[in-house]
Amino acid sequence: MEAKPDVLGISSKIISLAFPKGTEKLCELCQREAHLQCTQCRVTFYCDAEHQQTDWVGIHKRICQLLVPIRTPTLFSLQAAGRIEIQLKKAELIEICRSVAQSSLSEGKHQEALPAAQFCLRCSIDVHGPSTIHLVPAYLLLAEANMGLGNLTLVSELLSQAEWAVLKSPECGHTVHHQLHRSLGRLHMATGNLEAALLHFANDVYFASEEYGLDSTVTCGGYFLMANVFAKQGRMPIACSLYSEVARTWHCHLTKLLKTHVQYVHNPDMMLEPSYDKAKQVEVDEMLRTMLDFEQNGSRKDSTQIALLAHCLAMLWFLGKDSLKALGFCSIALQASQLIPNHDLTEPIQRLLQLVQTEAHPGSD
What we know:
Blueprint: E1 11-13, E2 36-38, E3 45-46, H1 49-63, H2 67-71, H3 80-106, H4 110-128, H5 136-148, H6 152-167, H7 174-190, H8 194-212, H9 217-232, H10 236-266, H11 278-297, H12 303-319, H13 323-337, H14 346-360
Antiparallel strand pairs: 1-2, 2-3
């Protein structure tokens, strides 16, 4: 009997006679005995409707038909050329799942990220084999998803496997090291081991700076996490100093993006680099808001930092085409900058405010 069709896909009971005798079908999510199959691809199976729906939302709706050639043996797939093609298709699936999982995590959808991260790991093992450096990105995705769900024991196990793979690969690059230390730092922070967290975040900054440079927005993510630890320890001067460095880096970066945007408006023929996707905007917004709240609610209330951070947020959401948020942060930034005579940011904030109003109401001049 088929389930009712809805936005979560369609499943039906497995007909055992349709498969070779002795063939056991396992659930895509939990690897227990399956009783349902996806009626659209017919090569994916589930123990119950809940797991089918969870997988559909998390990843399956994006890769449903891509699984058919991979999971349907043919004479061609058994030949050398066919095996190479299957491996290439699996590599494509790994990248899709990695991207989908990362997007869900950036938006704080940890449960939704699990199916994509799990499939990413299984597919990576199929392509690269067990315990290789190529599995580390998938381990880190799964660890981050479980961290958000509070499954810290599982997070520790996943990161241990990632560490082992890195230790066995001395040629492993700086990017993998920085991502691993960032994840380990977050785990130690969640378990209350703040000194260990600081050590890992310091290593994160080192490896990120080696790969991307000291002024990179990637590197300053490590500074931000270190500042959070220092704030939790009550070491406010150090936290303030690090937050200031992060704010400066993001202000420079967003100012450059805004300048490029303005140039494009005046010259539509020029190449415009893609701005942040929604998930990345949400991630950066959360970081900048954390620092803005820290300044607004702290005892010192540094108007210079408040103006800088609010200006960052205004630029971020103007570039993200959210005029309402951009106007709100422009207002906060302008009020803060006007508390300081001849403040350097007052004029740029006013120009941005004008830009936001113009693009929100074109032809109103």
